[in-house]
Amino acid sequence: MILMSVESSIAEISIEANLEQFLIVLSVSLAVATISRVFIWFKQIPYTLLLVIVGLGLALVDIRLVNLSPELILEIFLPPLLFEAAWNIKWKDLQENLTPIILLAIFGVIISVAGVSLALSKFTLLPLSIALLVGASLSASDPVSVIALFRELGTGKKLTTIMEGESLFNDGVAVVAFVLLVGIPLGTSELSLTDSIVKFGTFVGVGVGVGFLIGFGISYLTQRFDLPLVEQSLTLVSAYGTYLITEKLGGSGVIGVVTVGLILGNFGSRIGMNPRTRLSVSEFWEFLAFFVNSIVFLLIGDQIDFPSLLNSWNLILIAIISLVASRFIGVFLLCSISNLITIDNITWQEQLILWWGGLRGSVSVALALSVPVILSERSQVIETVFGVVLFTLLVQGLTTKPFLEKLNLIGNQTVKQDYSELLARRTALNKVLAYMKDIPINTVPEIEPDFYNYEKNLIQGQLNSIQEKITQLQNLNPELKNFSMNKLRENLLVIEADTYADLMLKGELNNNLSPILQEIISLKKEI
């Protein structure tokens, strides 16, 4: 009994200590995120990079918040980040840019692994087998801050989709590459092209298969009921469940989560969730991604060991040069191939941003930390990867905005957003005004005519003010008129497709639709 009591007390103390650590990390993260939005100067820096800088400051005075582990990143932090990105990416946009995304996600990883590992093995004393682990760890891109910058500055949708799509898929490819290579220095496996292709196919196939089954299973399940909190919870369970099940079956959990996120975001949310539920689920995942990113980037900075980095400066320098060079070769070579076989070309300016904006982050850190302790060179791998990650986040991350400005890639997304909001307000107020006109004021004695006229004139005044702002924006940005016409065309297609869908549900229209009607309904799903 005494022993059990002691063990219980120790467990309670451990839980309390972990909770205190978690609250400290969360408080610091939220404080930094708030500061980045309050003070003008800090607004120039993406909040994720600001978190890294604050983490570095804590590391400099030797304040360690929480020790990062590969399990913490890969099993706790990574699934929600991958799911949120996959949930929000439109299949239509992904499909349009699938060729460059696949080329960069698969062959870009191979080029990065080869470039970094060959340079390290040739110009340092690091064995090739260990250098391959460094190359695999650094092959996963994590441009969270760059993508946030793209959206804030209104950079083109194509560039954002390619950068985000590559990051989604190459995380899985990089993890698979690392798993295939980690057995070489341990002597448990050999580098064989045939075996590697078979294992790669197995990892990816199992991941896609599990993600496919869970994604479509939950999609059809949510058709049976309308319970927003349950549906929201199912998406959370699907993200973590898919990762764990896929890993247990010998597949890539990363690929599994990306697959289930794409299916639920583009299919399940449309057939099984009403608009209100879809919005609440999207807001939930936006919060979760912000929450996790805030913690991860702060801890990456906080884990830096400055004396160790200085001792490994030669390894870090060669790794940085080789990574930047191999990324340059990979992006321009693979984008040139993509331009030859697709209609929509990637300009040299966009290729430059894809090259410079390919930051490294949490996945690279997790892979480095998962190097087996039995390897004597483990500390060198970790120090090299941390040094390179730090360089990409601080140097490349903080200089991407000037690159975008110099290359004239900053768009008018903010103007379009403001214009869309004005159109939405005009539509809503017109509906309110139409409702008021339909009220039989003479037959409702409870409503005083003066109050009715006051409210009606107030709404009309708001409408006039909004219309003036819309006209001003159209005069300053003539292309917005085309934007309005495209939105009208999209709305007409949605109305037409919804009508056919309702008729099918009522049994008034056969499920075997003509090709024209099938095309209209598929267009609606893509919009």
Can you describe this structure?
- Helix 2 (47-60) packs parallel to helix 13 (275-302) and helix 10 packs antiparallel against helix 11.
- This protein has helices at 2-38, 47-60, 70-88, 91-96, 98-123, 128-137, 144-153, 157-181, 183-186, 193-221, 228-248, 253-271, 275-302, 306-311, 313-341, 348-356, 362-369, 378-406, 413-438, 449-476, 479-505, 515-526.
- It contains 22 helices and no strands.
- The protein has 2 domains: 45-411, Na+/H+ antiporter like fold (Up-down Bundle), CATH 1.20.1530.20; 414-526, no CATH class.
- The model is unreliable at 523-527 (pLDDT under 50).
- It is globular, with a radius of gyration of 26 Å.
- With 527 residues, the protein is mainly alpha-helical.
Task: Give the % helix.
Answer: over 70%
Which oligomerization state do the chains in this entry correspond to?
Answer: single chain
Structural class comes to: mainly alpha
Number of strands: 0
